[in-house]
Predict the structure.
Amino acid sequence: MNTKRVKNLLLISALFMVIGCNDSGGNGNGNGNGNGQGNGKRQGQETSQGQGNGNGQGEENCESNQTEEGLPSTVVDAINSNKSELTQDLKDSITYMFSEEKLAREVYLNVYEQQSVKQLYNIATNAEVKHEKAVNDLAVKYDLNVTLYPDTEASYDATSLESYGSGKFPVVAIQELYDMLYDKGIQSQQDALEVGCMVEVTDVSDLDKYIDQATTSKASDVLDVFDFLRKGSYKHYWAFDKGLKNKGISDGCCSLGTDYCHPEYPQD
């Protein structure tokens, strides 16, 4: 698939916020019961209970309470609820998490251009679009500038955000992480899947801390959004883990060492 087509497809997915129902980057070619093997295109009629079985990614069940934006109603309600009293740490966490979600979507897409691993494309154009939107909506709600981290006193500025193209980030640590992950991911399909494991573990680790902050601050709206992100990261971790196992890497993500070995993550 050439670069132009990938970018055009991403634009379409961003405009509609979600392609179909799945949030975990599941298989694309679902048949009547969602059991087809995916290649990024949909054929036939999928039911809301479709389960992918061809490449180990799996379809996330379509939630009956999803909104037209593709976000669960619990997340939309959280965004539209009254503001919580946020600590400075929690403001910083929201702005930092936006860059993390941007990293996940863009590193998956950009690595996919070099290594055609369907999990990368499916997750990037489905779940990660929604995740990035959810955090962006939080930043808008609290008027936090996500491009001037850690200066959260500056107002939200969509124009400055648009100035950061694909693979470019306002947070130095995120930029360095992206560069390292991209350089690794383009080496082979195994490396690309391993990058997925690394991204999702990083997200879960940070979200564990941020969820504790939101719980302590009784910021229920932020808690609901971060919980939504973490549940997605659990699903994506297992998608990449199974992808590695399907390639003969028997330990899956655990082959990367103890830092990336998390059998305790929930599985649906």
Notes: The domain at 70-260 is CATH 1.20.1260.10 (Ferritin). Residues 1-64 have pLDDT under 50 and may be disordered. The chain has one domain: 70-260.
